[in-house]
Amino acid sequence: MTAPRSSSQTRAEAAPAPSDAVPAGEAWEQALEREARHPALEDQDDRPGPDTLVHQYAAVAHAFEPRAVDTVLRGLDLVIASLALVVALPLCLLVAAALRISSPRSPSLYRGWRVGRSGHLFGMLKFRTLAPDAEERLGPYLGSELTQLTTKEVTRLGRVLRASKLDELPQLYNVLRGEMSLVGPRPIRPAFFAELCQEIPQYWQRLVVRPGLTGLAQLRMTREMSWAEKLAHDLEYIADRSLSLYLSVIFTTAWLLAFRPATRRSTLNRLP
User: Fold this and answer.
1) 159 lies in some domain
2) Which end of the chain has less neighbouring CB within 10 Å, N or C?
3) Is residue 194 part of a domain?
């Protein structure tokens, strides 16, 4: 059962794409390959050039005017993420030690490339939860098929980390770096970005804000739902983003993780 659909959500789905909404698939794919080889992180020279994913995004994006609330939300990102990292540091060290003991030959952290705001790629951090070399075996898959195959690759400790969402804690560092926000659309792997833009012309509109640790789509949907359905919730947040909605998503996420993991779905539909 999905949440009631708001007027802003309907507007987001109905928003017309420009006549040249997405460049030819080949152009997107080539841009993604170039960005993967030379990722545009904030500590590098990432000025848009004719051959970059950033330039491809700029060519199709509507003019995006930041709102005053964006500065407020970024300030909250920094304050909350900083406090959370300080509080969670002992737990992070404990998890890292447990991972090293359980898998001495594997790194404790996993760094995977994701598409961020305006098409910039960044390395998203997570505690490792999969068996060694699992990423290579899972690389070609997406959606429900990926979910099923991933289940077979998760380690014992990884199951605990995933169930408790502790594997996501390192992404607080991505928030401090400005690559992510606490609330926003979840970042996606570059390999599938071009494909989704071709299937869903409005998909590139997710890139007008930073990707998030949590968001409306994550609270209301499951990984098995269609990408178009998830996009509708992402666009709803982008259109209606405000201090109250930002805090509502954060508090709801924290409450669900702490108190209601077993009855998660019944509560999510009451989120505004």
Assistant:
1) yes
2) N
3) yes
- Alpha carbon distance 240, 40 (integer Å): 29
Distances (CA, A) of 222 to 1, 6, 89, 203, 227: 11, 19, 29, 18, 10
Give every CB contact of residue 76 below 8 A, 6+ residues apart in sequence.
182, 243, 246
- Which residue segment(s) compose the domain that 116 sits in? 7-259
Retrieve residue 108's tokens: 């404790």
Q: Is the pLDDT of residue 128 over 80?
A: yes
Helix (H/G/I), strand (E/B), else coil: 46 = coil
What is the H or E stretch that residue 127 is in? strand 121-127
Helix (H) or strand (E) holding 143, with range, is helix 143-153
In the chain, the N- to C-terminal Cα span, in Å, equals: 15
The verdict on residue 89 lying in a domain is yes
- Confidence bin at 70 (pLDDT 50/70/90): very high
Residue 260, amino acid: R
pLDDT for 102 = 87
CA angle (228 as vertex; 185, 191 as ends), nearest 5? 65
Given this model, what pLDDT does residue 63 score? 64
Both tokens of 90, joined, read 């002992």
DSSP state of 113: E
- The DSSP secondary-structure symbol of 201 reads G
Tokens of residue 36, six digits: 């993967």
pLDDT tier for residue 178 given thresholds of 50, 70 and 90: very high
CB atoms inside a 10 Å sphere around CB 149? 14
Domain count, the chain: 1
User: Is residue 164 situated within a structural domain?
Assistant: yes
User: What is the pTM assigned to this prediction?
Assistant: 0.74
* Average model confidence (pLDDT) across the chain: 76
